[in-house]
Design brief:
By secondary structure, the protein is of the alpha+beta class. Helices cover 38% and strands 11% of the residues.
Length: 354
């Protein structure tokens, strides 16, 4: 049975010109044998991802959403550069092949990378794939260990010293995401003002050991070996990567982490099988991270609360577009319910800690 992520027909209005794309790639990537067929990976809410199939090779193309004007939010060149720098020292990265700002090809900048084919785990384990508690524990330990490996890379040695500004990183995150939430607020959404005030008050000082941070490290952004579904072979979606506090990265990850004993309403948001027997809990992940990195995780309530708030902002920004008729994608309509659940979770962290 094939558990790999499958591309489908291209959504209406998001088509690419196959003749122009094939001509560009034949001139840019040696050894491709045509003809080219193009399909689209249907998941995701941000940058668009396409499967480019030649007779002898599959490639993946990434481009900004149609109509996007904010280059900083969908900077294809930046995403390409981090893959070029990271690939030699972090083999989980896809191999980047070519980037162009020539908008005559598809109407926007884009880059193309080699496809990492394998299994992507989403909300539940696919039918027929079973994990006993020991296997689940092993997979989730490896999940955490790959993040630790990323955070251990000396970004200066691979030429990424100007990739981000670690000084003031946490403050910029807190102030920036608070500003985004207020700008995306709709009358049916919670105001989050109490949570934002608490986050601002609890903000830690800059870390003295900044690292590369992925900023969207989740199980459904990892590729698992199909023949060995307990081995991680790829990490995808680097559009938000930068230099900053690695505990912020872990906090963002744990915002998605729904445990078996969490309230039923929280499970409505679950997008990874983190509820199965043997899966590590949030506390176990934090403890393992502290042990492997030597970092102080005693005040992780701030990082977890910020991660939950940030996830609510992401959902609210997308919902805002739906609310105001800027998109008709019906997937976005239910996001307001997620924003409300996340506010309740954030308030519990504020009131109880952890």
């Amino acid at each position: 049975m094939n558990y790999s992520d499958q591309a489908t027909a291209i959504r209406e209005g998001e088509e690419l010109d196959p003749t122009r794309v094939e001509a560009f790639l034949q001139a840019s990537v040696p050894g491709l044998e045509g003809p080219l067929s193009i399909r689209q990976f249907p998941r995701g809410f941000s940058n668009l991802t396409y499967l480019l199939s030649f007779n002898n090779r599959d490639l993946v193309l990434r481009r900004p959403p149609f109509g996007t004007k904010a280059k900083t939010a969908h900077d294809m060149g930046r995403e390409y550069r981090i893959l070029k720098a990271l690939r030699p020292v972090f083999p989980y990265c896809p191999e980047p092949l070519v980037y162009t700002e020539d908008e005559s090809v598809i109407g926007s900048p884009f880059y193309v990378m080699a496809r990492i084919e394998g299994l992507i785990l989403r909300r539940d384990l696919p039918p027929g794939l079973e994990m006993n508690p020991e296997q689940a524990q092993s997979l989730f330990e490896k999940f955490l260990d790959v993040l630790v490996e990323l955070h251990s890379i000396d970004y200066r040695k691979i030429g990424l010293e100007n990739f981000g500004k670690p000084e003031g990183y946490v403050r910029r995150q807190v102030e920036g995401w608070s500003k985004r939430y207020r700008a995306a607020w709709t009358p049916d959404a919670p105001d989050f003002e109490g949570v934002m005030a608490w986050i601002d008050q609890q903000m830690p000082a800059d870390t003295d050991r900044p690292t590369l941070v992925h900023n969207d490290y989740r199980l459904d952004n990892l590729v698992i070996e199909s023949r060995d579904p307990f081995r991680i072979i790829g990490v995808l979606d680097w559009e938000m990567a930068t230099i900053g506090d690695p505990l912020m990265d872990l906090g963002n990850t744990l915002a998605y982490w729904i445990e078996k004993d969490d309230p039923p309403e929280a499970h409505l948001l679950r997008n990874m099988p983190t509820h199965i027997d043997g899966a590590l809990t949030r506390k176990e992940l934090i403890r393992r991270y502290g042990e492997k990195t030597g970092r102080d995780t005693s005040r992780f309530d701030f990082y977890y609360c910020f991660g939950v708030f940030r996830l609510a902002v992401i959902a609210q920004q997308i919902y805002y577009r739906y609310y105001h008729g800027q998109t008709k994608d019906e997937r976005f309509a239910a996001l307001i319910h997620g924003v409300r659940v996340l506010e309740k979770t954030a308030k519990q962290i504020v009131e109880q800690g952890g």
